[in-house]
């Protein structure tokens, strides 16, 4: 009977540990460039800029921004400048 109690205690410990781990999983958080693109595009939308609208092929502002930064020959968007722009013209001048 002693081994049975040890087994049940061990089993209960495993169940508690596994059930505790189930809630601890967090989905991956966006990387810094992804957050910056989201912020820049939200700012462009707030300003009412056409650059914030999807392209004629349906790519979102965020997708275009991320793609621009992922091409070897492109420095990407000047996100700090775009985020600080006070008008669409100023954002385009970045």
Element layout with pairings:
Elements: H1 2-22, H2 32-47, H3 61-70, H4 79-84, H5 88-93
Q: In total, how many beta strands? A: 0
* Rounded average pLDDT: 76
Structural class of the helix and strand makeup? Answer: mainly alpha
Point out poorly predicted stretches. Answer: 10-18
- Apparent shape: globular
Radius of gyration: 24 Å
Ends apart, CA distance between termini: 77 Å
SSE series: HHHHH
Binned strand content: under 5%
How many DSSP H or I helices?
5
What percent of the residues sit in helical stretches (DSSP H or I)? 55-70%
Describe, in plain words, how this protein is organized in 3D.
With 94 residues, this protein is an all-alpha fold. It has a domain at 32-93. It has five helices and no strands. The protein has helices spanning 2-22, 32-47, 61-70, 79-84, 88-93. Helix 2 packs across helix 3 (61-70). Residues 10-18 have low confidence and may be disordered.
Defining key terms:
94 residues; mainly alpha; 63% helix; 0% strand; globular
């Amino acid at each position: 009977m002693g081994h049975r109690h040890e087994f049940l205690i061990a089993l209960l410990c495993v169940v508690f540990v596994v059930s505790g781990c189930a809630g601890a999983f967090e989905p991956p958080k966006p990387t810094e460039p992804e957050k910056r693109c989201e912020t820049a595009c939200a700012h462009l939308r707030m300003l009412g800029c056409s650059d914030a609208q999807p392209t004629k092929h349906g790519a979102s502002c965020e997708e275009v921004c991320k793609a621009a930064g992922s091409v070897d020959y492109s420095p990407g968007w000047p996100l700090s400048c775009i985020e600080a722009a006070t008008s669409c013209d100023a954002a385009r001048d970045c």
